[in-house]
Q: What sequence folds into this?
């Protein structure tokens, strides 16, 4: 009897144990992720898939911030698994916000000299999370909420001046002189390259010129002043930055004014002057007026302009050719303009000289008489070249000379006769 009781108790225990094991197995199976796979034979196999996790905790490109007052910079987040252009919002706490400021975009600026700490965290935008999830659809995205502490040091602002200082502030030169503008070294760099620009007024551009390399040339007598600019080449600008890392390159906006005074090498008077003071002739006479030559010049040319008081007595063309028209007296004034070719020859022969023309109103008197024989007046003379009848005073002079000669002859003969009688 007792054996039967023991057997029944054992069966009951086994039944309870099997029911418990079946229930636990069912719960475990229901909590698992099942995937059906079809084999090559067409049979269906049930497998279990494990979920993958992708860590998207942001990593920053900076571990410390060292800057100067006024300088700006930014904190960047490293790409996640090669995905670029991901965006988000920075959450920053600066222990001493009077030393450094950082906004939600990660842009920082040094405010005053000092040291502090910045606690930086970052939250991905929804678009960025979506972009990551699309690239890794089978992964769960996980981000640790661990803020990073960054030490900050802000030093006093270091400025390197790049305002150009020129070798000259004023130019005193003679016509034809040249010179060279240069700039002093900047930021420890002496071999500077750049472009000069001289802002010269239009009305003074014929006094002095300055090219892009800084070479100036004195052109003509006069005074002027101009603003001179200098722009550093990209190469020189970079050389200064490399020489002064972390420094701010700053140029003052004060214009540099250069004064220039150009004087002639000498002054030459080229006032045209006629070689005669009057014209005397007969009706029908002709001639040509010419100006006195310029020193050292051969055959200078130009044109006349005349103002004749009575143009019915004499006519004169622009080349100085004149013709007596009728008897009478008059006068004229003239101006004479040297030709461009003559002025060019003068400039070449006397470089740097200033040519002066005095404003003189030279008056030339004209006397024309009646005459039956016309003549041609050569340049620079008032005497006719044709045959001319002797004047009355010339005939009287010849008669007087003849009378004196006869008297001397008579006296000589008388003296000879007296000597002969004495000898007898």
A:
């Amino acid at each position: 009897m007792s054996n039967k009781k023991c057997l029944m108790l054992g069966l009951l225990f086994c039944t309870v144990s099997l029911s418990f094991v079946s229930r636990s197995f069912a719960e475990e199976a229901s909590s698992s992720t099942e995937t059906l796979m079809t084999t090559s034979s067409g049979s269906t196999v049930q497998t279990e898939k494990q979920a993958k996790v992708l860590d998207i905790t942001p990593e920053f490109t900076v571990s410390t911030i060292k800057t100067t007052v006024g300088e700006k910079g930014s904190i960047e987040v490293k790409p996640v698994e090669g995905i670029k252009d991901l965006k988000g919002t920075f959450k920053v706490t600066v222990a001493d916000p009077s030393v450094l400021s950082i906004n939600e975009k990660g842009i920082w600026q040094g405010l005053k000299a000092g040291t502090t700490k910045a606690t930086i965290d970052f939250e991905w935008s929804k678009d960025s999370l979506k972009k990551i999830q699309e690239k890794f659809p089978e992964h769960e995205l996980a981000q640790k909420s661990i803020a990073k502490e960054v030490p900050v040091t802000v030093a006093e602002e270091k400025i390197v001046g790049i305002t150009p200082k020129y070798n000259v502030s004023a130019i005193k030169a003679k016509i034809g002189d040249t010179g060279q503008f240069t700039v002093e070294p900047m930021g420890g760099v002496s071999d500077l390259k750049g472009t000069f620009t001289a802002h010269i007024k239009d009305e003074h551009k014929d006094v002095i010129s300055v090219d892009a390399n800084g070479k100036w040339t004195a052109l003509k007598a006069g005074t002027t002043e101009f603003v001179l600019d200098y722009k550093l080449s990209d190469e020189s600008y970079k050389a200064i930055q490399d020489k002064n890392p972390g420094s701010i390159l700053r140029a003052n906006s004060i214009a540099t004014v250069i004064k220039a005074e150009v004087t002639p090498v000498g002054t030459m008077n080229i006032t045209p002057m006629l070689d005669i003071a009057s014209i005397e002739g007969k009706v029908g006479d002709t001639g040509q007026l010419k100006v006195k030559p310029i020193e050292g010049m051969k055959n200078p040319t130009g044109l006349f302009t005349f103002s004749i008081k009575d143009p019915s007595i004499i006519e004169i063309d622009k080349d100085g050719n004149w013709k007596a028209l009728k008897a009478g007296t008059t006068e004229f004034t003239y101006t004479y303009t040297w030709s461009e070719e003559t002025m060019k020859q003068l400039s070449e022969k006397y470089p740097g000289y200033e040519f002066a023309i005095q404003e003189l109103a030279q008056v030339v008197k004209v006397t024309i008489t009646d005459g039956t024989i016309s003549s041609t007046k050569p340049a620079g003379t008032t005497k006719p070249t044709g045959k001319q009848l002797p004047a009355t005073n010339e005939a009287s002079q010849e008669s007087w000379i003849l009378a004196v000669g006869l008297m001397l002859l008579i006296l000589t003969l008388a003296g000879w006769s007296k000597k002969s009688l004495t000898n007898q």
